[in-house]
Design brief:
The protein contains eight helices and seven strands; from the N terminus they run βαβαβαβαβαβαααβ. It is an alpha/beta fold. Strands 3-2-1-4-5-6-7 form a seven-stranded parallel β-sheet, sandwiched between helices. The longest helix is centred in the middle third of the chain and has 22 residues. Bound molecules: NADPH dihydro-nicotinamide-adenine-dinucleotide phosphate (NDP) and 2-amino-3-ketobutyric acid (AKB). It comes from Sphingobacterium zhuxiongii.
Length: 256
Amino acid sequence: MRTVLITGASSGIGAACALELAKDKNYRLLLCARRVERLEELKSKIKDLNPACEVHSFKLDVRNADEVETTLSNLPQEWKNIDVLINNAGLSQGLDPIQTGDIGDWDRMIDTNVKGLLYVTRFVVPMMEDSKQAHIINIGSIAGKEVYPNGNVYCATKHAVDALNKAMRIDLLAKGIKVTAINPGMVETEFSEVRFHGDSNRAKSVYEGVTPLSGQDIAEIIVFALNRPAHVNINDLLVMPTVQATGTIVNRSNSK
Ligand SMILES: NC(=O)C1=CN([C@@H]2O[C@H](COP(=O)(O)OP(=O)(O)OC[C@H]3O[C@@H](n4cnc5c(N)ncnc54)[C@H](OP(=O)(O)O)[C@@H]3O)[C@@H](O)[C@H]2O)C=CC1
Ligand SMILES: CC(=O)[C@H](N)C(=O)O
């Protein structure tokens, strides 16, 4: 049995991972995010799907290092050993050129996508000491492999995730902790709604005329990566919908 901690489990890819892992009797789930009411709804979906799946959920804002340390160290005793960390919490805010970008948006992206991922990893790795199957999955992005117009700071944060993913693989090698980056292209979640500060029409237009990836598509790939034999690690995977060639080149006339 492996205990999996998923950050940002209240929506999108994180919630889909929880539901996918709940189908597999080898996993028990630690779910966190800021919106606890969403986590409660997710827990009841998991109960319907697999009543035997053990779930513990809690509120966590990954941007606050003290909160991350205190909350993780105060987990109930039976949840203190972690095997798998899915560093998923993240967001994009704004899509503006650098000279007019909103500094609050920049801070939120850097604090969540880079510093939050670091804080959680810093305090979870010591909780993996007893694990024989320790694995960290970092959710990067196509935006961590290339830069697209007006993506500036979001792209920079995901390039940082790409670097940290490689750095973790080096630093954690002697501990036998697997480290995998999953880098999605366009996935239809709340991502665009958050990027455009709740402008749902603009968010919808991102997915017009295309079949994007779903959270479930990414979750299935993560479960595949987690279930490889002990000697096999998927280091880095870039996953795009068939209609997407780069961060911004998308065929909207030939949706599959
Ligand atoms: N959708 C896409 O096209 C792509 C997404 N990604 C990445 O996938 C990851 C998941 O995003 P996605 O599912 O699409 O988007 P969603 O907006 O649907 O989900 C984002 C999740 O992150 C959580 N989160 C955000 N800020 C914080 C915080 N400060 N502390 C804790 N949790 C936080 C949210 O929970 P809450 O608000 O409740 O705290 C939510 O559960 C992100 O890292 C994103 O960058 C990568 C490439 C493409
Ligand atoms: C370009 C993408 O596919 C990604 N969702 C992003 O907006 O960075």
